[in-house]
Design brief:
CATH topology: Rossmann fold
Number of domains: 1
Structural class: alpha/beta
Order of helices and strands: EHEHEEEHEHEH
Radius of gyration: 12 Å
CATH architecture: 3-Layer(aba) Sandwich
Strand order of the largest sheet: 2-1-3-6-7
Number of strands: 7
Length: about 120
């Protein structure tokens, strides 16, 4: 079962909100990153069970980062998020192994835990 999560998003306020939502769901946020490079480095160092990754990062494509993360040896579960509900789709991100896609506005609705936990 997933217990540790890395949040990768360039919006500090969103990272704080996501951390609170995840903690309320019983998940432990082990790290936060604001860029593609920071996210990749944090994942390698922290080895989280899962990651929540924003589509739009200042130094690269969050979808490419998600694809990179799911290929790591311990196979973390990755959920892609965006403030644009049309940025991608669950079907598109599942093609490379991510657990799914969530518009940021739906984050508190509880579906995130199911995606991160594999339920």
């Amino acid at each position: 079962m997933t217990s540790t999560v890395l949040i990768v998003d360039d919006d500090v306020a969103f990272r704080g909100l996501a951390a609170r939502v995840l903690a309320a769901m019983g998940l432990q946020v082990v790290g936060e990153a604001g860029t593609w490079a920071e996210g990749a480095a944090a994942a390698a160092e922290l080895r989280p069970d899962a990651a929540l990754v924003d589509v739009g990062l200042p130094d690269g494509d969050g979808i490419a980062l998600a694809e990179h993360l799911v290929a790591l040896p311990w196979r973390p579960r990755v959920v892609v998020a965006s403030s644009d509900p049309d940025a991608t789709s669950t079907e598109a991100v599942r093609r490379f192994g991510a657990a799914g896609f969530m518009p940021k506005e739906t984050l508190p609705d509880g579906g995130l835990a199911a995606l991160l936990l594999g339920g």
